[in-house]
Amino acid sequence: MIRRLYDWTLSLAARKTAQVWLAVIAFVESSFFLVPADVLFLPMALSRPERAYRYALIATLASTLGGIAGYMLGAFAYDAVAKPVLQFYGKLAEFERLRACAGRETTMLLLVTSGLSHLPPIKVVTILSGVVDVGITFFIVSCLVARGARFYVLAWALRSYGVPIKAFIERRLGLIAGIAALVLIGLYFAVRSFAGSGMLTACT
Fold first, then answer.
1. Which of 8, 127, 145, 148 could form a disulfide with 60 if both were Cys (CB 3.0 to 4.6 A apart)?
2. What predicted TM-score, i.e. pTM, was given to this entire model?
3. How many other C-beta atoms are found inside a 10 Å radius of the C-beta of residue 190?
4. DSSP string, 112-176
């Protein structure tokens, strides 16, 4: 199923309505769609590099709006809607682990790492933010900054280097961003541990 969804999303880049589909995919990936908007964004920006920043803006705004929708699902419809969606995609166990040990501050950090690198998955952290009641203003700002940074960096790379960088992005950038996110998380928990907060023991 995942491969079929990936191929279908990729095929949207060739359509005249590709920009509309980019907005739709960026919106729904934040709460219930499995394939990230990057899959559609990359071929679109590569084929029309002069529009790469425009595509980045569309993806950023749509992803943020979708994030707000996911936040509301977590805050007001977790049991009725969000939980079945997470269960359908096999993300419920991961969500419950995060929910058990992540308070507001940890979730605020995860908003940044997921926006930059999909680590943890965006839909998981988006819904979690509503469940643990992260401030909506911080939530929106973090979405705009972190997700916008991801799309605009991709746009810059594709405008600057074109085809050669596409293969690198598809194979390596996710790994590098993931490692950076893990380092950030590790540093955060180290500081919290030295401060004697007890958060680490709560998550083990």
1. 148
2. 0.77
3. 11
4. HHHHHH-SS-HHHHHHHHHHTT--HHHHHHHIIIIIHHHHHHHHHHHHHH-HHHHHHIIIIIHHH
